[in-house]
Fold this protein.
Amino acid sequence: MTDQYQSKLVIPEAPFRPGDKPDYSFMSLPSPNESIKPDCMADPAEMKDLAYGMVRVLDDDQHAQGAWDPQLSIEKLQAALEYMVKTRIYDDRMFRMQRQGKLSFYIKCLGEEAIAVGQAMALQFGDMLFSTYRQQGLLFVRDRGLVDMMCSCLSNSKDNQKGRQLPTLYSWKEGNYFSVSGNLATQFSQAVGWAMASAYKGEDHIASAWVGEGSSAEADVYHALLFSAAYRAPVLLNVVNNQWAISTPQNMASGGTTFAARGLGFNLPSIRVDGNDLLAVYAVTEWAAKRARSGGGPTFIELFTYRAEAHSSSDDPNAYRAKDEWQSWPLGDPVERLKIHLIERQQWSEEQQEELEANLTKKISQAWKEAESFGTLEDGPHWPLESMFDDVFKDIPPHLRRQRRKLEM
Amino acid sequence: MADANTQDKREIPYVMAINEGVHQIMQELDDTFLLGEDVAGVGGVFGTYRGVLDKFGPERAIDTPISEKGIVGLAVGAAATGLRPMVDIMFMDFLGVCMDEITNQMAKMRYMFGGAATLPITVMTMGGAGMSMAAQHSQSLEAWLIHLPGLKVVMPSTPYDAKGLLIAAVKDDNPVIVIFNKLSLGIKGEVPEESYEVPLGKARIAREGTDLTIVALGRMVYEALNAAEQLAELGINTEIVDPRTLQPFDTDTVIQSVKKTHKAMVVHEAVRFGGMGGEIAAQIQELAFDYLDAPVARIGAPFSPVPFNPGLEQAYMPNAEKIVAQAKELLDR
């Protein structure tokens, strides 16, 4: 080895690990007034800065500022707050049920509620959602029944997935919510295909797909970027950067830049947005949806947020990340931020917040009781054994009929 | 167990046996390194790599981006330089994502390079159902792998074999896929503290018997042992063969057993149709047809994806009761 030899193996490290004191002062957060808002049909070359900056609307005092302010009505803002609180209370209840052994598994989205809620509100009901397991807010905005969601997690006799899927990996055809996959990122290409078909059929529906920043490492994401760009598919490709993929920090997948920057190489409008700012999330999604519906094709969006809870009920974040990271997170708590925004505008109060939380807690408790009346995970009733052979194929072939008969014996 | 000559027979769980094997082989061979999703920071989502990062540092215990194809491709490239990558693919189901690297690259490269490439890669993965993990995290896909010339495939059932086969796999100069079983992680068994190898390609007689041969794969060995106890009460003396390595398969041990018992059954957790059981049954009838008193019986999962619901999943999985029922039918002929 000569002295000129410079190559060195670099292993990216998490900014903080257990025992460290989190300090995010290294993070540069632009103010809401710094981001330009281009025309929704503008050339991607004119908006490259959006991939490296961060679209924000709520400033540090939670006042709405800047070009991206979507000017939502008070009713809409209050509705958004309600959906977010509902998501949080539902998650909390379900997670506790998991801890009590009534569910075998659960995934919360604590701290990320503004993303699913803001995006679902900015989309239309006919738009197809290709979600991960951490956008349960999409379902609340589309008003899926609480009891149905719980029955799906309980895998009981009323489970629309017939006892076949993990809790939180919902499927809801009537709500245009594509079945969530347990294998990561597969939905990205599927969303592009769905969007291309929509365009081919002359429909005005678009698709929206999500992956985490961790699973953005899967090749599916690059297939989707390229295909969507090549065919100008009407699709929103969203990367939720919540900093952690189970124990793996975001810089393992980022290559040292923003995730949004990746879209630029495919000539896509690529925007990074404060994912804890409901107004900013709404505004960017509305802009991208309008572009897609107008024939402008795909937009690549990075939603910058923080995963406040464990990845799932199966891991303990204290084993791999510093305590108080969320408390130190410079972009705050999305629910608190929207609440303060409304209170500052004198359109909400702490009393109203308490009342809302109490009402939703009660509703969710009642729904749980009702859901359990259709069966519990441990004692059932669940779907009958012979149903295992349904849906393997469209029609049951003779050899499966024989297997089913044997099972019934 | 083969060489249990120590006084205090130490018993440790399957998960610890894997962990110990990883530590010892990485200690012994400094051209090894571990890579995969969550293997370093948390020591693997199943705890199999706990402590590896602390002991060997971040250059030998490498957390990767979530890209199975990238991980296996990296291993192929690094192995070609002479290193010994130990790759973790968290769930066997995720092999789907890296199957091109496995099928068309890793398994064939030595052959297609005219013998010039050596790829001592070990891919460790977790298979099997029974933990309510649904159809995309519970499969037994070994039949995909045994069909690929160039690839060795092992499936340890006991803690002893988990450690010994893993060490042998890493030392082997061919790519080896080690299929662990997630439901067996807590199962305890005797494991020597020192490093040892269980030779690849050698089956083990898990129970000696005279009336019936059961070839059981992976965790099904325990179900077969349980069934054998029930059958013993009926006066049926069952011999159980644990192949341990599926590719190359130890046909001789199976044939010798069948020649003694004249009746054979194959049990695996994978879907019965197209499973390894068909291959084993075919070999038995080719090589021991004249010794057989009955057709070879096969037990596997129904032809449907693994359900999530625990009740449905239990009904879906092969178990001791199903083995006993099938054995009675076989012996009644």
